Amino acid sequence: IHSLLDDLADKTLVVLPAGDNDMDECVYIGQVKNRDGFIVVGGTDTDDKKAASSNYGKCIDIFAPGQDVTIARGSGVEKVPASSTVYAAAAVAGVATQNAIDITE
Q1: Predicted confidence (pLDDT) at residue 95 exceeds the cutoff of 80
Q2: How far, CA to CA in Å, does 66 sit from each of 6, 22, 35, 39, 99?
């Protein structure tokens, strides 16, 4: 699996959420996500501090909003607050993709 992950990182931008376990991400993931070419994202709260559930440590590359993020649910009409590093990673992926597009134009 490690060679597949390395191959993926060589070909595309890989943004992954950190765990939502309030523990050291390096212990949580081992070596799977801690590799060149991967961006591992932790979550912040509404005060721009580490979200209570977000993992932490040197294996996290960046933090982004991940608590009380407004998301669409169902048909997209109902907006609800949600909390997870998944939402933080989605925000980072969007910014990183836009920057990659700007660089190539």
Answers
A1: yes
A2: 27, 13, 23, 15, 21
pLDDT confidence of residue 29: 74
Kindly report, residue by residue over 11-22, the tens digit of the pLDDT: 788 898 999 999
Q: For the chain, what is the total number of helices (H) and then of strands (E)?
A: 3, 5
- Give the pLDDT confidence score for residue 104 in this predicted structure: 47
Phi first, then psi, for residue 69 (nearest 5°) are: -80, 130
- Higher-confidence residue: 104 or 94? 94
Q: What is the pTM of this model?
A: 0.81
Query: For 55-92, b where at least 16 C-beta lie within 10 A, e where not — what string?
Result: bbbebbbbbbbbbebeeeeeeeeeeeeebbbbbbbbbb
Burial class (CB in 10 A: 0-12, 13-18, 19+), 15: buried
Euclidean distance between the first and the last CA atom of the chain, given in angstroms as a whole number: 34
